């Protein structure tokens, strides 16, 4: 009896010590230099988040992050994270901000905070060149296959609203667009900028429905409760716009889209 008591006692002590060690190690793993701004983005969404010929981060969001870090007097570190993993990384404190063309939604706003919007766009559709579809309702038919990128608002919309078509998930935007171009799926739901760019890549076999059926805004993700950082980000965005920062980025990376959207009668994004 005494032996069982001692075994039980030392087992509890061992578990307690192990638990303390795990907590200590976890805490240590999350400690970071306060002078480093860690920004999460998925570097597979040109011209916003991408890599150059030397595999270094570049694009609109990267330049925004660089300017923000400079404004805050910090060194920038970019973490390349799959889109679906960005919010978990922010919630656990592995990154300070999300700057990854992320749409602010009510669902996402329940778990993270958002800055003021810095870009306005909307969901659109890429269809086969010979398709008779002109509206989002035209693709919700029995037997139709609709491609969406996992974790995006296109994915969320399709799950909630398409009741007749089959929704297929893809990890990469390019793969989803290629399925439409090759006639393997009937449509791809994504944001207005990307639908335009993917149509340009596959203009011989696809057609874009560029009038957004659902308007959206992009914002920077901030950890819940960090109102000081959110306020600093909002002030940066306001000043960056007034000082022409977004105009310069638009001219540098989206000059073709600016001309095309003006001709089509769509407002530009910033």
Characterise this structure.
Mean pLDDT is 89; it is low at 1-30. This protein has a five-stranded mixed β-sheet with strand order 4-1-5-12-6. The protein has a five-stranded mixed β-sheet with strand order 9-8-10-7-11, sandwiched between helices. A two-stranded antiparallel ribbon has the order 2-3. It has two domains: 36-118 and 219-264, Periplasmic binding protein-like II (D-Maltodextrin-Binding Protein, domain 2, 3-Layer(aba) Sandwich); 122-216, Periplasmic binding protein-like II (D-Maltodextrin-Binding Protein, domain 2). The protein has helices at residues 2-30, 60-72, 86-91, 106-109, 153-161, 173-181, 192-201, 227-242, 245-253, 255-264; strands spanning 36-41, 50-51, 57-58, 75-80, 97-98, 113-114, 119-128, 145-149, 166-170, 187-191, 206-218, 221-222. 43% of the residues lie in helices and 22% in strands. The longest helix is centred in the N-terminal third of the chain and has 29 residues, at 2-30. The protein has 270 residues and is of the alpha/beta class.
